[in-house]
Amino acid sequence: MNTFVYNTQTNDTQDSQYNVLGHLMPARMFVFVIVDEPGTDGFLVRRVYTSIEDPYLQELELSPLQARREVFPDKYGLWGRDPNSTASIAEHVMGYEKITSFASASSQFPDGAARMAGKVIYVDIAKAKRSGARLVTTQEIRQSLQTYVQQHPHLKNRVNKILNYAEGLDREVLVQPDPRVPPSGIFTKGGLAVSLGIVKYARVVQVVGVAFTAYDLGVATDQSFKTKSIRPIEKEVVRQIGGWGGAIAGAKMGAATGALVGIETGPGTIITGLIGGIVFGAIGYFGGSAVADQIPDK
After folding, report:
1. HEC secondary structure over 68-127
2. What is the value of pTM for the model shown?
3. pLDDT score recorded for residue 20
4. How far apart are CA 20 and CA 265, in angstroms?
5. What's the confidence (pLDDT) of residue 29?
């Protein structure tokens, strides 16, 4: 590390200040496109009510907000019907308690429990865990039911029937949110297709990190001093500002004409627009570099 000495005038005025600009830091900064890939640890499949007017949902006598959470978890997140419920795993699975802190799901991706009706949603396991949710495995459900039947031997046949459903047909897994799995971790079939499509196409686009960097400008400034020419720093500024300007313009262009880059997704404008913005933004950066390359060195 080099030591730099600064010489500057001082005065006797109390609390006076004088700002000294240091040398440019030799560091490079990059900006990347971050893709949050859904389902890195897989998904759980849950079936939910298709309408707030569903008679079975009405029987639960939930509040209007609770009812909307039941029907639209992709908007409100996944909640237990009563986060403060003390109902056990067995009581929830047996159906003796309808208002519990658990939400039933299935590990059978992508269709879930075939004997259950309703709209299919997908719970991102990784995001559920990051939000603090507890996942109760099928094996844990078995253990809870076995303990329950020991306490209630007269219910042995019913418990065995429920256990067969949980293990064989449903492959049931419970989610206990804390207090919810956020909407970003819940997908409808259409929403999941769009999200996976963005990830898929983002991977095939080469995204170049660009930034206004102190190091690159410092090098260009030094070259300008040595050559006694404004050209080096002029080229670097054009390269960087031109790149950012091109990227912004490219994003706007991509939003309208993303399909022109040859990306076909099926659903259409959402994915093609986003990815078009990335592609045209990259073209904008290279365009900035191309312009700078046309400026003579002297």
Report:
1. HHHHCHHHHCEECCCCCCCCCHHHHHHCCCCCCCCEEEECCCCCCCCCCCCEEEEEEHHH
2. 0.62
3. 65
4. 54
5. 42
